């Protein structure tokens, strides 16, 4: 008879499983990883993960939830670390690029998968929403100060697309190492100039 699991037991195993799954998903791709492989990675029986997760998609959603949450916290901390709307925007952009290259496997699992961020996994949907808000909050700051004009969500998406593009290009070896950050700066300045309300 399996022992009764405490909340701490469950949280600890889920955390260890997510760490192992992130490594395997990054190395092989989620489709190539089995629940048996995930169990073997932790040295437990093939059925043990099912006590903590419904299936592999549930594990992948948990891994991505953790990633989006860490990403949002990094961007929120960057925004809070400086004063002034423009400085906040610059800090958030730099934090975005820094997070991507410090956590490349996590970043790819967050953004390069077809797994939907919907009400199938509530925690993932909430983490994804929070991450999107962190990419828009600094735009709202600049609209409120009159430095920028337009729809904050649309503008945030434009900056996100541009930043994601240079990050992925460098990760794929299409840009020289370390060049994504410099290019991000130049693109952000050009976009901001086009959206500026002042000369």
Number of strands: 0
Number of structural units classed as domains: 2
Determine the N-to-C terminus distance. Answer: 73 Å
Averaged pLDDT? 90
Helix/strand layout:
Layout: H1 7-28, H2 35-42, H3 56-80, H4 85-102, H5 104-111, H6 122-144, H7 152-171, H8 179-195
Helix pairs in contact: 1-2, 1-3, 1-5, 3-4, 3-5, 3-6, 4-5, 4-6, 4-7, 4-8, 6-7, 7-8
Keywords:
Tetracycline Repressor, domain 2, 2 domains, elongated, Arc Repressor Mutant, subunit A, 199 residues
Write a brief caption for the model.
This protein is an all-alpha fold. The chain has helices spanning 7-28, 35-42, 56-80, 85-102, 104-111, 122-144, 152-171, 179-195.
Kindly describe this structure:
The protein has 8 helices and no strands. The protein starts with 6 loop residues before the first helix and ends with a helix. With 199 residues, the protein is mainly α. Helices cover 71% and strands 0% of the residues. The chain is elongated. The chain has helices spanning 7-28, 35-42, 56-80, 85-102, 104-111, 122-144, 152-171, 179-195. The mean pLDDT is 90. α1 (7-28) crosses α2 (35-42) and α4 runs parallel beside α7. The chain folds into 2 domains: 1-53, Arc Repressor Mutant, subunit A; 61-195, Tetracycline Repressor, domain 2 (Orthogonal Bundle), CATH 1.10.357.10.
């Amino acid at each position: 008879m399996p022992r009764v699991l405490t909340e701490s037991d469950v949280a600890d195993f889920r955390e260890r499983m997510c760490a192992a799954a992130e490594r395997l998903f990054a190395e092989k791709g989620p489709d190539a990883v089995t629940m048996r492989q995930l169990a073997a990675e932790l040295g437990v029986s093939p059925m043990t993960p099912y006590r903590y997760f419904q299936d592999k998609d549930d594990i992948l959603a948990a891994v991505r939830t953790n990633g989006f949450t860490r990403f949002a916290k990094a961007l929120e901390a960057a925004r809070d670390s400086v004063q002034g709307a423009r400085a906040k925007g610059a800090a958030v952009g730099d934090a975005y690029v820094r997070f991507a290259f410090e956590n490349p496997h996590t970043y790819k699992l967050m953004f390069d998968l077809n797994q939907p961020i919907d009400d199938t996994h509530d925690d993932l949907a909430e983490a994804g929403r929070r991450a999107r808000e962190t990419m828009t909050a600094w735009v709202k700051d600049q609209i409120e100060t009159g430095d920028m004009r337009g729809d904050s969500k649309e503008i945030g998406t434009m900056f996100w697309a541009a930043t994601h593009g240079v990050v992925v290009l460098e990760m794929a070896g299409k840009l020289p190492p370390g060049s994504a950050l410099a290019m991000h700066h130049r693109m952000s300045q050009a976009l901001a100039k086009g959206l500026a309300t002042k000369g």
